[in-house]
Amino acid sequence: MLTQIVKVDSQEPDLRLLAEPAEALRHGELVAFPTETVYGLGGAALNAATVERIFAVKNRPADNPLIIHLPEPLLAAGLTSEISEFEAALMARFMPGPFTLVLSRHERVPDIVSAGQDTVAIRCPENPVAQALMRLAGIPLAAPSANRSGRPSPTLARDVAEDLDGQIPFIVDGGACQLGIESTVVIARDDYPIILRPGLVTREMLADFAVEYFGAERAERNRKRAEARQRERSRPQASPISPGQKYRHYAPQARLDIFTGEDSAARATDLRARIERYLVAELPQTSAKSLIGLFISSATLKAFKGDLDGSAALPELQMEVNIYAAEPDPIAAAHELFAALRSFDRSGAAVIFAEGLSGGADVEAYMNRLRRAADGGAEEE
Ligand code: AMP
Ligand code: MG
After folding, report:
1. Tens of pLDDT along 308-341?
2. What is the mean pLDDT of the segment spanning 362-374?
3. Is 64 a pocket residue for ligand 1 (Cβ < 6 Å)?
4. Is a pLDDT exceeding 90 seen at residue 376?
5. Which atom of ligand 1 sits closest to the CA of residue 60?
6. What is the DSSP letter of 145?
7. 197 CB less than 6 Å from ligand 1?
8. Rounded CA gap, 251 and 150, in Å?
């Protein structure tokens, strides 16, 4: 199959260019498109054969359910059997945006979309290209990230082509995704927002909203009850509540090592120690000159270089340095992470060192993706 790349303006896409991809979607074909989080692989959500094809193209495990994408939250009414007042308020507050809400599933949603669960995940992307395409198609779209299962999520059209070229008729190229990591996935069936996957709608924002909605005392009572019930549901012997959590995710080909510390100076010291360990323990087993990928802020890189100057130099290192921002900032790091991992893969890096960050509400989503990329991340199971 020939994959056509349709390039459009990221803010004001020409609807004439989107007509054909939208038509393809209505006919049950698959189209990759940009959202503010990552590129999605879209297909008609209510067409079971199309949804099967999404799983096949991605090589996605059948028990990992898909998120249904809609241009506006009101359209969720036809896909869910019940929406509580609090769930509706959450949707009104955080949609459109990088936020997914898991609701009770209407029987018209095929089993395969939800991997047999009695829930359905709903999201309304804000990205203008996604909005235009969804409205033109006029049908709910199941849309997981447009990568082969296990690989870093795509944040550029070329990343999608790298994984799916020749397997889908259209990739809509709307430039770089604004945020670069996937949506926050939340379930709120017990009148409190429980995070199933962290994202840029943060724990703090959700907690503040619950307090605004219920008042501090009732929100706290609801939180305790909801967390207890959630723990009960995700006991090891029970089926995982957000099955995507158990799979290897975002993984580059090279081993990824996270260096940490309170500030840039401490992280630079930790980085140096880790590189030294690598040189002693691992490098001798691999080819003589192997490439090191480094994902780092400019401030921490400066500290690292200072460290190198001040003591016995490390042997000549071959490094690809990817500077995600001037300062150690989790939003900027999240925006660049997946593209950097793919770039290190293309360069054939033997090992990747990435800057771990701590403190602040925005750190959780970035560190979640980084840890999963580092160890394949079955840790939350
Ligand atoms: P992806 O679309 O590849 O970003 O992955 C979607 C994520 O949403 C996965 O982690 C899924 O497990 C999660 N998800 C989708 N539908 C549901 C659902 N009905 N219940 C719980 N989690 C879900
Ligand atoms: Mg994914």
Report:
1. 765 555 667 789 999 999 999 999 999 999 999 9
2. 95
3. yes
4. no
5. 3
6. B
7. yes
8. 6
Check whether the bond before 34 is cis (ω within 30° of 0): no
Query: How much distance in Å is there from the Cα of 121 to the middle of ligand 1?
Result: 7
Query: Where are the chain's structural domains?
Result: 1-244, 255-375
Which residue's CA is the closest to the ligand 1 atom numbered 7? Answer: 244
Amino acid letter for position 26: R
Q: Which atom of ligand 1 is nearest to the CA of 100?
A: 8
* Residue to mutate (ligand 1; options 33, 39, 57, 197; most atoms within 8 A of CB): 197
Residue 315 pLDDT: 67
Give residue-wise pLDDT tens across range 200-213.
999 999 999 999 99
CATH class of 255-375: alpha beta
DSSP at 237: T
CA nearest neighbour of 65 among 185, 152, 236: 185
pLDDT at 224 > cutoff 80 = yes
Which numbered ligand comes closest to the C-alpha of 147?
2
Which two structure tokens, joined as six digits, stand for 235?
């006991």
Architecture of the CATH domain 1-244: Alpha-Beta Complex (3.90)
